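Anyone have tokens for MFS transporter? Sequence:
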Amino acid sequence: MSNEVNTAAAGPEAGGSPGPNSGTPVDKETRRKVLAASFIGNFVEWFDYAVYGYLAATIAAVFFPESDPQTGLLLTFALFAISFLVRPIGGFVWGHIGDRVGRRTALSLSILIMSGATFCIALIPSYDTIGIAAPLLLLAFRVLQGFSASGEYAGASAFLVEYAPANRRGLYAAVVPASTATGLLLGSLLAGVMTALLSTEAMESWGWRLPFLLAAPMGLIGRYIRTKLEDTPVFRELAAEDQAVKAPAFSLFRTHWRLLVKASGAVLLNAVGFYVILSYMPTYLSTELGLGATESFMATTIALLTYIGFIFITGMLSDRYGRKKVLMSASVSFIVLTVPAFALLGTGDFLIIVLVQILLGAMLTLNDGTLPSFLAEMFPTRVRYSGFAVSFNLSNAIFGGTAPFMATLLIASTGNDLAPAWYLAGAALVSLIAVALSRETCKESLRHE
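Reply: yep, here.
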């Protein structure tokens, strides 16, 4: 990936190329720093966020010890879902900062809040020590995590798209889901190693805290890198011309509400698919299908490795064939193949489980690798951050954060282990309709209107 991106970034004479919609030169070294800052910052945010999902069973035992295992797991995922309710609010706040003050400022603040909240989770005493205050503190810090994360994905995507060469915006924006998956990968590796090496008692006593403690140093590194960058060329142009809107959210709903509805629908497959396939899956395999915890994490880790590779291929495909074709292919794949794939997971054969997870991950990359550039290109520069953040976080608040809870609840209420698959296929259908009604964006310039 890096060779192709750097080649595209290099200009003919001065070692750089003009910024999108701009005569502002952007040199190869600047684009390297932008890629690194976006990757590392988003990686830190989503490592912090994903650890909670991978350690859900242990967290349930620590914070809800008086409940039976399934109820404790439901309560743990309920906290996971509640923290998402703040994300639309965060989308408005971060969108306002990003569109009024600057993309870099919003991204630098969001990573600081996320890292601090995650570090504090590691310090919360157990339920046995402080009673009901323990899950309440956990909820408070989860809400802070949700607020922070609401500005990260949208901001990093807008940042990359606005710095990218016009014919490589899909590839550049694919760095965002790739870094997200890398954060998940590290979380999966740590969880797998710890469950393999530590006893249940050690995990519940102190082991679960270790990944959360890593948040502080990683967050500081990510913030430092981001503060060393300039804002994007197109945003600096708007600021210099004093064309930035004073109330991006008001402008978004007054002028671009149709785009907002379509974007929110397009995000639905990502919202449900991401959290079911990449976050909830280890819990599903171990608690619902009876696979060992170590084997569950190992299968997810292998799938994540292939997912990261597929992401960049998808970004390049979207640059060549268009965003709509790739996104619609993803939706059709999930509608047709999700239920059969989940049925194969029920065989219990480890090799089959790994292959199915690789397939599901590859299908998901068709959506995830294309969605960041698609959403960023849908909205004009003045409301790009707000449009992306609000649509992305609205769908994730309603359907993404609730996905693990809904999957567990659907299985409990129906007794059918395939219930999450039907839920995912339904989300794919909604996304298919939304994308089909949207315009193609990959060949358009980044608009200022």
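Strands lie at 16-18, 25-27.
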